[in-house]
Design brief:
heterodimer, A: two-stranded antiparallel sheet, about 65% helix, B: mainly alpha, 7 helices
Amino acid sequence: MFSSVGVKIYIETSIVVSASLGSMLGGKQLKHERYDTTFNLLQYAEQYYQQQKNGFFTTHSVVIEAKRVIDKALNSLLESKLPKLIKKGKPERLVNAEKYHLLLNECTDQLETWLSYLKCENYDNRKKSEIVEQLQGEFQILDIEFRKANPGDINHFHLSTRNTGFRRVCKAIWTEQRKEALEEYKPKHGRTDIEIMAEIASINQEKSVEVYIASEDRHFYAKQTRDLLEQLYGIKCRRSHELLADGMIKKLLKNEEATPAS
Amino acid sequence: MAYSKTEPSLVELTRELFGDLSDFICERKIDEEKVKKYDQVLSVLEGRKECWAMNTALPPIDSIKIYGAYSTVYGTLYGIAKNLDLGIKRKENPKAAKEVYSILQNAVDLIPKLEKVTKEKKAPAQIISEIFDASRSLRRQAINKQIIQAGELPDRKKLIIELGEHIESNLN
């Protein structure tokens, strides 16, 4: 069974994942031109936020994640250009450094503006506790169903925070097409197994892309391992993704709108 | 040490500038000779900027952050010197000095952190992040006080397109 604390952690981080990968990008397949340039990512998210679309959950974690994307993107840009730029003359090198510095500052300014919107807005926070409560019940049912369907594997793959073995395996996720993007969303320490699998499922809901699971040292695990994980967790995670992205949250938000909080 | 041993310590030089500024306020007079000391500090900072522009000793993004911090301090001190000069010409003693007091203090506080990062010694991510935050706050303060101009990025679109192309090529 889930403890209430465990479920809360799961839901909040999963909302971030859903927001980052699904709702923030319109719930559609990720598109290069939308995702890969950080400016576009921020503008798109901001546009959603301003329109107060329910699909977009604004959290500070999303902003922090976006900051990581910016750093990562700029870093890889610099890495590819660096050898060439170093060879160039001193004045040119200084001009280029200044240009990157300004770009970095501009990115950070955008993030800070966005963050300031979030600080003065409690639109999403009102709904959080209700969503947590409703989903807690759903996950308990789901957990029981899952245990019934997979009686033999429960001891090895317990769906709780104690399953550190599985967590070690899922340190990073990639797809063939979206190495850059998904590398940013590698699971963090201390997250529960179901979160990680929900994340994988949310990326791979249509099975349109190959999802690989990699270890901490970034060696890809064999396809067999992936299949085993998919077999064990696939149903549960697809279900949790559905709850988070399409069903439960949207329904709750509609109810919230119909009966505003007193 | 990463920087030349013959070079005077930037930390000491900037502290001296701050001491001078306090004197200007106490004595209600900006000393023209002391304002000339800024040239020496600016030339040292110029060297630091050059050293960190696209440096390979740190990850590129970190080296840009260090470069940016030196660049911001350079721009701030340049603007302060200009303001003090203008104060002398306009006989605004010590108004000009009072106006730049807090911003010089922040710039002087940032220098010791920056000087700890050398090419030989890798700085922890935490220190880089602290330096970045402090330099951005200094930059904002300097822009607000019109000591430096807000940077324009004329070819921002071009850079973004390049960024996109680079990532695309990595993915393919």
